[in-house]
User: Fold Trk system potassium uptake protein from Photobacterium halotolerans.
Amino acid sequence: MQIRSIIRIVGLLLALFSVTMLVPALIALLYRDGAGFPFVVTFFILLAGGAALWLPNRHHRRELKARDGFLIVVLFWTVIGSAGAVPFILSKNPDLSFTDSFFESFSALTTTGATVIVGLDALPKAILFYRQMLQWFGGMGIIVLAVAILPVLGIGGMQLYRAEIPGPVKDSKMTPRIAETAKTLWYIYLTLTVACAGAFWLAGMDLFDAIAHSFSTVAIGGFSTHDASIGYYNSTAINMVTVVFLLISACNFSLHFAAFSNRGHNLRTYWRDPEFKAFLVIQLILLLICYGMLMKHQTYDTWWATLDQALFQTVSISTTAGFTTTGFSEWPLFLPVLLLFSSFIGGCAGSTGGGIKVIRVLLLFLQGVRELKRLVHPRAVYTIKVGNKALPQRVVDAVWGFFSAYALVFVICMLVLVGTGMDELTAFSAVAATLNNLGPGLGQVAVHFGEVNDAAKWTLIVAMLFGRLEVFTLLVLFTPTFWRN
Assistant:
């Protein structure tokens, strides 16, 4: 393993990340909120730390193998997540503990959106912007990870159906080089962010909130600048803008690339994709169930208000964004539980959404159908097809392996939380909210995670990392085979 080359790369990433601290420092200067000092100090600390790692190893540029790639990916998220906690530790407002600072940082960077902070409306603009910015950078990191890096390492949702991706996307990469792929993804991501910010501003947000919420919307993060989240605005127009951009961001970014490339065939590019169609069907079914139940219980005064709330919460929770306009946990109990389970499905592979991913759930469903057919015709040979192409058995086996590992991590984390004294409902929903990178849960964590004990918070931080790194990327580091020469 090329340890010195890995240290060089991590040092470079840390030094680059330090530069981002200057942006909230400038926001503090612009709004004169006195919150810029922690970011300036953090900039120098991270820059010095990055230089200390990079300088002694700057000449080690050996070719990295897949095993090195796994370690780099895990180190990237853990090191940057830890570095992101420094401004929270140094800040006086909010006055967070060491554990809470790490929780808030990892929640932002993994785009989970679970917060320990109460009183967002009274926080300095620099802190508010920093939380949103962390989610935005985390969302971009997720896209590059899912589309450009994990497939090269032999893992990730993109690999499951790479032959099905339309347009120029072949062999898990949109362009021959990962650097070019990442650059293309940045262009798409930045374009969506600017468009989302403009739409929020036109819908009635002020410029600061429009930019801040565009960061967390395109990243499917869920952080807001207000305690009441999107419900603060009480605006149907803002709700609809959020829904549209959450749906766009929950789609495979490779499809966006292919759609932009194939001018004149944009809609056909999406419609030819089996995962996209399955994603829309799931959203429609959830919407109809939520709308019907809310109308039956007369939760809202008019059918239009019911539709507005049902559509927003359905899309927000099922895509793992976690924005709220109302206390959805106060809905008839069936609905919060249903939406919580829908977050296990999450967004499409190669999107900023969390969860197991639609393509894996689709393949699990097709596998189940195949087994039912085999019961009727034991000697018949059935193949699983995504679109018009048959998938090899190893892909189906990989999906079952992922699902088993996901369930195992979920059960272990939940048992640990119960062991810390947390009640069963809160423990279940807290793990679901963090492992699926959703954010809000039920019970004690329906609004925030501030009252959760420290041991539980560290467990949930680990759950966030497992969910964001597609489970196997982190699990492989715990196998003896990985560390053997």
Summary: The mean pLDDT is 86. Residues 259 and 268 are 8 Å apart (CA to CA).
